[in-house]
Write a structure and sequence with these properties.
Helix 1 (about 25-35) crosses helix 6 and helix 4 crosses helix 5 (about 105-125). This protein has helices at about 25-35, 40-50, 65-75, 80-105, 105-125, 130-165, 170-190. It is an all-alpha fold.
């Protein structure tokens, strides 16, 4: 043992940083989803119920239950790498298909023309299906500028996420790093 005068006292002043595992593609989608406006989240969740779950989710239109159903699908624990990547690609494809009309000027123009046509038909026949839809069409026209503005922001944030985390290359890099981390972790258990 060294003499006491040669011993330097050591005081730990900080804790070692905790290294968090990389965020999965599904966690990245979920985090992006949670940052969206409540109305946008309900629209996205409605798309998921229709396209991803083939209408097997909650039946109430625009319900908060749709959001919870999508969250559970994005949060499911214990998925293999391939299942995570498959879900991420499925969500990306379905979302981009659904949101395309909200991401383009022509999509908004078509929505506006459709609503105006419904209102015109409602004036001609007050007992028609168009007359029943007229209040919704009117509300849609009133909300169109605000919705368009929100969806422009959604498009920007989606493109950032998809371009950084959901490309084939990014998914391969995540999968490879996740498998390597799994091997290192299992080696420590031995």
């Amino acid at each position: 043992m060294p003499p006491p005068e040669n011993v330097v006292s050591f005081h730990r002043t900080a804790t070692a940083p905790v290294v968090k595992p990389p965020v999965t593609p599904l966690q990245a989608i979920r985090d992006w989803f949670e940052k969206q406006d409540g109305e946008v989240r309900r629209e996205i969740a409605g798309m998921a119920v229709l396209l991803l779950f083939e209408c097997r989710g909650p039946s109430e239109i625009g319900s908060q239950e749709w959001c919870e159903y999508l969250r559970r699908w994005l949060n499911q624990a214990g998925l293999s790498n391939h299942a995570v990547i498959g879900r991420a690609l499925t969500f990306r494809t379905c979302f981009e298909y659904f949101a395309e009309s909200r991401f383009t000027e022509s999509g908004w123009t078509l929505s506006e023309k459709t609503a105006l046509k419904i209102l015109e038909e409602a004036k001609l026949d007050p007992n028609s299906e168009a007359a029943r839809l007229a209040p919704t069409a009117h509300e849609m026209l009133d909300a169109l500028p605000a919705r368009k503005s929100r969806w422009i922001e959604v498009r920007k944030s989606w493109r950032e996420l998809a371009g950084a985390r959901l490309t084939p290359r990014a998914l391969r890099v995540w999968s490879t790093s996740h498998m390597q981390r799994g091997r290192r972790d299992s080696g420590r258990e031995l």
